[in-house]
Every structure is written in structure tokens, then in C-alpha cells.
Amino acid sequence: MTNPTPNIEQEARRIIDAAASRDIVLRLLGGLAVRLHSPSADHRSLNRTYPDIDFATPRAHGQRVERLFSDLGYRADKTFNTLNGAERMIFYDQANERQIDIFVGNFAMCHRLPIAERMSLDPLTLPLAELFLTKLQIVELNEKDVRDLFALLLDHPIGSGDTETTNAKRIGRLCARDWGLYKTVSLNIERLRQLAPAYQFTPAERVLLLERLTALRSAIDREPKGLRWRLRASLGERVRWYDLPEEVRR
Predict the structure, then answer these.
(1) Mind giving me the DSSP string for 89-116?
(2) What is the CA 225 to chain-centroid distance, rounded?
């Protein structure tokens, strides 16, 4: 097969197609996945660069991924993959100075998200609900994460389906299982509400953002919570509710 291509979107599609030809499921997440779904990623306030590519794959496909990327011209981070390959793998495109992250089975950063069970809903990316949550679960949101979240909010209604819609029912159910995730997501919804005036949105865009943030928060709060959730909620912030994973860079 050919070596990695400089155009990052073309390269992501090439990888997904090559994986599919071997019956390996790979789905994009991260900023590039947001860009594929959201024209507002090119908004004057939200435009950013996409230096790396992030994928998710089911646990059953993890062992075949290393051979795939080797054949596609990538170098494996052998030490990292040996230690962490059951949950995450890293590969490098040295010619284009690009890093590839593969999350296996679950997405585990500040919180653990079950991402494998709904990968069939979109041919290129995780479903919008999961894509949204991979950003909302970040305790220390940075500028690029905020831009990605605003792009998703501008372009996708909050609803109960998955077709170019952010499935609030799915987000609510995951937050109802895990008080820590609920806490971080709730904090970030408020952060986004407070940050919106700092961006060059039109009055109509600002109203739309606030309406969708309110709808999402309402859906999360409406979802029934179990005893385990309520017990953890009683401890509140006295016990840390998140992890702070180290960024892995070559």
C-alpha cells in the first residue's frame, strides 16, 4: 500500500477504507471527526488546525490494528503499545509529523466511555453523542476543545436520535450511570455558556448555542439516577471524581 498522504482528511478516509477491506472497524473521533460533521468548524471564531488523527476500534479488532498500520506506512510506538495496547495504541507518520491514537474498546481519559457498542451508526466517525462526550468529559478544557464543542452545537440539534443529531438520551443515560461523568459534563455545559460571549457569534448563533446547552442539561437532569449514583453524589467534590491522564507525545 502507499505511504501516508499529506492531506489529513484524505489520509483518515484512506485508513478507514483500508481497515474495512480487512473487516476491521475504525471510527474517527477528536477534532477531525468534528470537522467532518460540522461546517461551523470553519467559522471565523472556531477554525483550527488538525495535526493528528484519533480512532476507536472494538476490542475484538485491536490485535489486527498494528499490522494494518504497519502496512499503511506507520511506525508503532512499541513500548507504549506493549504496555497499553489492550486499551490504547499509538502510531507515527514520520514524514508528515503526525500521530495516530487508537482507543480500543473504551475511551478512557478523564472518564471512561463505552464507545464500541454503537460504532455501526456512522461509517466514518463515532456517533455524535459519543463524539460530543469525548470532548465534554475533559476536566481541563482547552481552546481547541471549546471550539469543537461550539461547532457541534451550532450544527446539530439536541434530540433523541443519532442522524446528524446529538442524542441527549444517550448522553443522559451514560451520565446517570456515573456521577463523576455527570459532574464534569455539567460543569462544562456551564463553562460553555459563560464562554460563548467571548467568541464572534452573531446574536442568533448565541441564542441557538444557549438553547441547545439548556436542552442538553435538561435531558441529563431528567434521566433517572440509581442508588449507586446518589450515594456517590452525596460525597460530592470531597473525593476526586476524574482522572488526569498525561498527554502522550513523541
Answers:
(1) EEEEETTTTEEEEEEESEEESSSEEE-G
(2) 24
Quote the pTM value.
Answer: 0.94
Q: Virtual CA dihedral for 170, 172, 178, 183, nearest 10 degrees?
A: 130
Q: How many residues does the chain have?
A: 250
The three three-digit cell numbers of residue 249, written as one number: 507525545
What is the rounded distance in angstroms from the CA atom of residue 105 to the CA atom of residue 4? 25
C-alpha cell of residue 85: 495496547
Q: Is the Cβ–Cβ distance between 84 and 100 less than 8 Å?
A: no
73-116 confidence digits (pLDDT tens): 999 999 999 999 999 999 999 999 999 999 999 999 999 999 98
Residue 248 corresponds to which cell in the numbers above?
502522550
Would strands 53-57 and 98-104 be described as parallel, antiparallel, or unpaired? parallel
What is the distance between the alpha carbons of residues 214 and 103, in angstroms, rounded to a whole number?
Answer: 30
